[in-house]
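Hi, here's the filled form for the chain we discussed.

Project: internal
Contact: R.S.
Residues: 179
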Amino acid sequence: MGIPDYKDLPHYTYSDYRQWEGRWELIGGIPYAMTPAPSIQHQKISQKIAVLLDVALSNCNECMALLPVDWKIDEDTVVQPDNLVICYKPDNSYLTKAPTLIFEILSKGTASKDKNTKFTLYEKEGVHHYVIVDPAEKLAKVYSLHEGRYIKIMDATDEECEFDLGKCRITFDFSTIWA
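And the returned structure, exactly as it came back:
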């Protein structure tokens, strides 16, 4: 028995993805199940992030905060970030352009994908700011795109961070998401 040849694995597309029941992501034609449902801690943090983003964007007519929604990057890649900000009006029921700011909340089943696969994908797709939230450590790693590469801006626990979204600037207080 040899090492599997990944070229032999099935390659799925957006049309396949649309047929699936439950929550999935599709990255490079490979499906990722989004089960089990996020933990209560994960959902509480996501809800707090959503509220903070919504309040911070209340004076900006261009940007909006969203909870998981399909972002169709191409025919074989569709992701659903935990929390995101877009600074354009979407044309479809799913996104086709990169969000400006993404928060991913780590869980045991998604940590590697969020730290590696999605990090590289978001960087390549031009997401200006990527925040990886670790509930277990009560730590958020904040990255910003600079000349096509992510640089770490800070490790946030109880700090505030200002995000330049292009159309507006917001301040995000990380101390409020952990309680």
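Let me know if anything looks off before we file it.
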